[in-house]
Amino acid sequence: MKKFLLFVSFAMYSMAAAEPLAGGGAKFLGNITTSGQIRSDMGDLWNQITPENGCKWGSIHSLSNGNSGTSRFAWDNYDKCESAYNWAKEKPGERHFKFHALVWGSQYPNFLCKKKNPGITVEQTKRYITEWFDAVAAKFPDLEYIDVVNEAIWAGDNYHSGYGKPAQGANGISTDDTECGGSYIIEALGGDSIVNGKHQYNFITTAFKMARERWPKAVLIYNDYNTLTWQMNEGIELIQTIVKNGAPVDVYGQQAHDCKGMSKTDFENKLTKIHQETGLPLLISEYDIGEADDEKQKTDYANHIPFMWETPWIAGITIWGYIDGATWAANTGLIKNGQDRAAMTWLKQYFAENLDKGRNEVSFDPVEPESQKPFKGIASVIPGKIEAEDFDIPGVGSGNESYSDDAENHGDSDYREGTGVDLYKKATGIVVGYNAKGDWLEWTVNVQKAGTYTFFAAVAAANSGSSFQLSLDGVNISSEIAVPAASSGEENYEDYNKVSENVELPAGEHILRLTVTGAWFDLDYFTFVAGANADDPEPIQKEEPSAIASDNLHFDAAHVLADYDVFDMQGVRMGRISAYGLHEAIRLVKESDYLKNQGVYYIRSRKTNQMRAVRIVR
């Protein structure tokens, strides 16, 4: 017996000295508490910890007299919130702690339940939320990672958790209290206004701002489920919306409970889409595979983990439990009856052989968001005329941009220098030119009265296929509006036309966006006139064809030779040519063998500074 005990002691010492799987790697590989405890092998396997339930609001916050009285906070309850925090603190920089979660529509205190506490009000709820945030900040002032809001995607008829009524839950497993009767959490945090059928998630933005005030250096996370399957697009839209509204969110947490059987390609493509469309780094926050078949579970791990580890915009990985029979969902454990399942064996081997493949280019330097502003200080009034070049001044922080321009060349105008929008001197003054597909501009507008308006735009295109679409606060208000090609002349962007469409506008201040859906046209200005099919207040007067022909003949007869500089898209001068007019200069450039690479080049008259873009195809 003595020998056996000595052996066990040696084994435990050896385990304690072991390096976690991702120790020294580019990002963390973490796990959760097990049945409310921190197992002795936690530090041998994982270098990040999330208490499964211990830091949830309902686990910590109570009132002295049940539904009334003073607030009390139990920090090291059955699931060890404070102990997990201290576990990470034992090895600063090597271990990491994530607080889960400040705001969630499930497992909040009973005294917030409308049914259990009929006297609860919006104002009381707001006070309790503030007390909760303040208490967490006082206890843990230096939190590194925080799930600020959990499971709030609107999925058709309900939120992802029981803010107002019980929800289905991830994998159909709900932790909502069916006897609670809902809460006033959303209302207390500013509500959830709906604009043109789209949820604005005001309460989420408020929660993130409250968190940033208390933890200026923490990584603030929005966390949700079904984001890789059923509600992928809804999740993307939520992030885009709260970022646009000024929420200081740093990371989008993917619970990733919905990855069972997902192919490697599908998994990678979906995460990439989410990252690209939200513009945020991702965190794999609750990954698990509920599979009884060891080999199938291992296959999923082998298809998913390498991408998480080796992708630079994924900030970290948390697996949601590792002991079979002690996880929230069946068959998600990695160790069964003391033996590693095949996925765990694979996991150990992968990190032993590929630790140095980890990539992490995510940096967290919190920036106080600042919304975009009208260029001239006040919103453009509708009905009225808006000059295209007077798009909004960009704000600060992700989601507060006022334009997106693929080329980022300023053009030949000195108007609004410092922006990347292509502005040129022509037409009625300044125009937005070289509009590539996917480019967009935004203007803050103030609609004086809700109703139908006729939209007019002055546009010019050299070829057919150019088009754009209007949206208001992220909702399309027009079809794709085609821009007619010039009536004559190659690469002719001087022939301006008016296009129009009836649009419905709500009253008040909004963000108007014009998105290029078909490339290569110039935009001068646009006008909104009250009423459907209204008359254009500024119709473009066209010259008679005969007069144009006469002018052209006179110009050709003069044989005036002029010099033209040729630039690439970076503004580097490629050379100089002489030609009898801009059209001949364009032809010479297209036919020349000097420009070896295909792409877009600019031709500018040295005499008049008139500039044209020309596309070279080899």
In short:
The protein is an alpha/beta fold and 618 residues long. It is built from 13 helices and 31 strands. The strands form 8 sheets. An 8-stranded parallel β-barrel has the order 1-2-5-6-9-10-11-12, surrounded by 4 helices.
Brief descriptors of the model:
single chain; disordered N terminus; Jelly Rolls; alpha/beta; 618 residues; 3 domains; 7-stranded mixed β-sheet; 8-stranded parallel beta barrel; globular; 31 strands; 24% helix; TIM Barrel
Description of the structure:
The protein has three domains: 28-357, TIM Barrel; 380-530, Galactose-binding domain-like (Jelly Rolls, Sandwich); 562-616. Helix content is 24%, strand content 26%. The chain is built from 13 helices and 31 strands. The N and C termini lie far apart (84 Å). Mean pLDDT is 88; it is low at 1-16 and 544-559.
